Amino acid sequence: MRLPFATSLALSSALLCLSACGIKERIEERVQEEIAEKVVELAAGDEVDVEIDSKDGKVVIVGPDGERIESDAKGGKLVFDGKDGRTVYEQGKDGNAQIQAENGYSAQIGKTIPKDFPIALPKIDELLSSIESEDGKGGKTYSVTASLDSEDPDEIATFITAQMEAEGLTVTKQEVSSDEGKMIILSAKNEDKNVDASSMITSDQVEGETVLNLMVTWNRRP
Asked: CA angle, 136 as apex, 146 and 87 as ends, to 5°?
C-alpha cells in the first residue's frame, strides 16, 4: 500500500504510542521526534510504501531509496535501516527502553538517576524520566525530568545555578511569569571542558496547588 508522506509521518509518530504506558508516556515525545526526523529523511517529499499486519500489529514503511522502518508495537520494538546503518529501539515490560545504532549512538531511557550524573539535584517528589546517551565519538548526554518537593521555582533555580557554577560553568538565566505560574530557563557552558548544560523549572497551579517540575540536561562533547 502506498500512502502520501503526510499520512506516513502521522502514522510513524503513532507507532510507539500503541505501547505507551507510565514512564513511556513521559518520554514518548522525545523518541517520536527522533523517529519523525528519520521519516522525513526517508520520504524526502515522495510517497512511501506502508505494510500493516493487523494480526501482530507490525507496521513497515519503506522509502524510495530502500530505507526502512519496522515497528512491532506489541513487542515494543522499532527498527530503522538507513544510510548510516541500523538503529534499534526496544522497550521492556518495565517501561525502560534502550536505543542502539550501528553508528555508535546508544541511549538508556528509564526512571532512575544515572549513577554518574554530573551534579546534585534538589529533593525530588517523583522522577518522571531519565535519558543517558553516548554518541559513539566520546560525547555523552544526560537528561532528567522530575516533579519536585518544593513550591519555590526561584529557590530551585538558585540551587541548580550553584551546582553548575561549582562545575565551572557560566550560567545565564531567563524567566517568564504569568498568573498561572512561572518558567525559568538556565543555560550554561564551559568551552574549556567542552560542556554545555541547561535547566527548565516550571511552576503551575493545578487544582489550587503549586506543582513544580524540573528538567536538567547535561552535554559533554568529545
From this structure: 80
For residues 184 and 174, is the Cβ–Cβ distance under 8 A? yes
Q: Which amino acid is at 154?
A: D
Sketch out the chain's domains with CATH numbers: 2-104 (no CATH), 112-222 (3.30.2030)
Contact 34, 97 (CB under 8 A): no
Q: What is the largest CA-CA distance in the chain?
A: 57
Name the strand (E) or helix (H) holding 133: strand 124-134
Residue ranges, the chain, pLDDT below 50: 1-33, 36, 40, 42-45
14 vs 36: CA distance, rounded Å: 10
pTM: 0.71
